[in-house]
Amino acid sequence: MTHIVIVGAGECGARAAFALREKGFDGDVTLIGAEPHHPYERPPLSKDGLAGAEPPKYVAAPERYEEVGITVLTGAMAEAIDRGRKTVHLSGGRSIGYDRLLLATGARPRTFPGVSEGAARIRMLRTHADALAIRAALAPGRRLAVVGGGFIGLELAATARKLGAEVVVVEGLPRVLSRAVPEEIAAIVAERHRAAGVEIVCGARIAAIEDGGDAARVLFADGGSLAADLVVVGIGAVPNTDLAEAAGLTIDNGIAVDETLRTSDPDILAAGDCCSFPLSHCGGRRVRLEAWRNAQDQGTLAAANLMGGAERIASVPWFWSDQYELTLQIAGLADGAAATVRRAMDDGAFILFHLDGDGRLIAASGIGPGNAVARDIRLAEMLIAAGSRPDPAALASPETKLKKLLAA
Amino acid sequence: MSANWVEVCAADEIDEEDVIRFDHEGRTFAVYRSPEDEYFATDGLCTHEQIHLADGLVMDDIIECPKHNGRFNYKTGQAKGAPVCVNLKTYPVKVEAGSVFIAIS
To answer: Which CATH architecture has domain A3-108+237-306?
Structure first.
């Protein structure tokens, strides 16, 4: 009987496992995860989930796996792949043979140089255990320093404020959210944080972060310093490629896959945060995404292709972030945009449409209270997928329904 | 069975292939008008994370949650795949004298 083994029990691996069954795969499915839990959703960890719900919010109820015939190995580290024998070696000496293998090994937080792993007052946020440890250190009057003004750091800052902690965000670049978000939207987010009492320091040059036992300290290159009860470092993530690299698979900012998620070994696929892939909407440019929806979409696609299909990646990158009452949503990748069109909406919400030099819509970034921009961002995503060149005046006019542009 | 018919709005207040939110006595509903000009009603909140579906997008007979793109067939309430796995409850709808009514059990 055909055996499909999935290394990595996060959103992507779990989705792939269930999608195999939904698509009628009748062989064996084994899902291998290093964490003690069944697969759970990571997005809540920096948001309301930081409050430390126990158990974490599962991708699917643990009993569902048994019901559909998915073997889940938790607390199991995949240590090596023997491609010749088509075997995965696990910690503890166990080995599992595969016919086809999916690597959904995810990413891990980038560490700050010189910070030791055991520092109790200097943490990162990726796992449920991380969230519990951070939550335990936050309380009214406690001081949190967040290093890194990206999505994770800012979401954590908002959550920590809700819990009553004093919060300072330290960002090395001139503004927050500079990697993924247009300046106008980033400015609104920063202003909202300041209104909530968060101190934001941009352009900071950090020399070191130290755990002094009774307090942690962020030391700046100019000689200044900042003390906090807890420092959380959120300076991006690096793909988990060690296993693939040791097995001799091609690595290129992640495990390199083609448009069908195949690695340089046709019996091994990779999907989610760990892989880089050619994105057709961006002229085949190789990208790697760290995103919940991408993990789902690629997990589902991987399932089809593990079963012998050759389906190509078609989805448009999509991200969201919740901070206070604001939700930010982005479809597509805006770098390379030649023009931006602004569409004002009710309640201060707005969307920026990013067009390339040929007038093709390549991205849309929106922000507003609640889900004010969600519907139009979703329609923008479809316009991007369709390769459409909408009339900029129509995009700018709130009276023009985007659905009409899609039908045009 | 005693149907409790509640007036929602004028029939033309919902665009074709669209949805509105309707709150009644502490409960929230989503009321739809299909591309075929028929009306439907479901519970108002997504079964994944309690988000108002009326902020989402209606395409043919599908409502998509605005938050995480969970999809349901709003005519039957059927969940259409990850991240949603629990179906939506549906409610009978009628149009009388130009107004939409839903039967709240």
So the answer is: 3-Layer(bba) Sandwich (3.50)
**Cα–Cα distance measured from residue B27 to residue B4, given in angstroms and rounded to the nearest whole number:** 14
Q: For A188, list phi and psi in degrees, rounded to 5.
A: -65, -40
Q: Do A378 and B51 touch (CB under 8 A)?
A: no
User: What ranges do the domains of chain A cover?
Assistant: 3-108+237-306, 122-233, 325-407
Task: Measure B1 CA to nearest chain A CA, in Å.
Answer: 35
Class of domain A325-407: alpha beta
Q: CA end-to-end span of chain A, whole Å?
A: 49
Q: Is the reported ipTM for this assembly greater than 0.90?
A: no
**Could A378 and B66 be called an inter-chain contact, meaning their C-beta atoms sit closer than 8 Å?**
yes
Mutation to test the B interface, candidates A375, A379, A405, most B Cβ within 10 Å: A375
* Cα separation, A408 vs A383, whole angstroms: 10
Per CATH, the homologous superfamily of domain A122-233 is: FAD/NAD(P)-binding domain (3.50.50.60)
Q: Residues A158-177: pLDDT tens digits?
A: 999 999 999 999 999 999 99
Q: Do B81 and A22 touch (CB under 8 A)?
A: yes
